[in-house]
Amino acid sequence: MTEVIFGSVLSALSTGAGAFIILFMRGSVTHRWRDVLLAFTAGIMMAASTMGLIPEALSLGGFLPLAIGIILGVFTLTLLEKRIPHIDLEHSKSGIEFDEKALLIISAITLHNIPEGLSVGVSYASSTEDTGNLIAFAIGLQNAPEGFLVALFLVNQKISKLKAFIIATLTGAIEIVSGLLGFFLTAYVANLVPYGLAFAAGAMLFIIYKELIPESHGDGNETTSTYSFITGLLFMILLIQLF
């Protein structure tokens, strides 16, 4: 129980850690660096899902629970995408007024953090001790640049740096609640763990392919982003092998 709380808090606060950078920024960040960060985190999440969550779900339940869980994860994220209007933080040219646009961004990021928190909680319910730490670490690494980009967007909307940092940090707090929910559901409902792990994998794969990769290729930085994705993938594989 202590570990799941610690892992959920750590992954959630990583959003604030990324946003913290905004307090010390003097200039702007190029699209190339934003794309590199997004692609790197996509590689990390890909390794975590394909080498951590999916093999664990297969070993515990076999192919059918894996397939059902992945499909449910993808379907859930698809519903979130349809219900919450997606506004690209960096490429949007819409004329939405500040209050509405800022609210949409904050709501979308907050809701998208729910399945990430579930992924952490479900992973700690697994019988394999290191799975929870691995996924919490991967989600935390993904949350850091996300928090930075949210804070950067808010600052560009004329919000003070301190307020932008606080708001961006709070968007990650939902992961603590959803992490605990995921843990209790899978820990105390028999045979739910492989479905939960597969659900988390499906959610992460959706985020990778639908969000992170397209956004990292939006400014003509496809080659650099591809190298960054592979670097993130190899980095996470190395960590899995070492720990």
From TrEMBL:
Keyword Calcium: no
UniProt membrane topology term: Multi-pass membrane protein
UniProt keyword terms in alphabetical order: Cell membrane, Membrane, Transmembrane, Transmembrane helix, Zinc
Origin superkingdom: Bacteria
Ranges annotated as spanning the membrane: 6-24, 36-54, 60-80, 134-155, 162-186, 192-212, 224-242
Principal subcellular localisation of the protein: membrane
Subcellular location: Cell membrane
Coiled-coil annotated spans: none
Family named by the database record: Belongs to the ZIP transporter (TC 2.A.5) family.
Name this protein carries in UniProt: ZIP family metal transporter
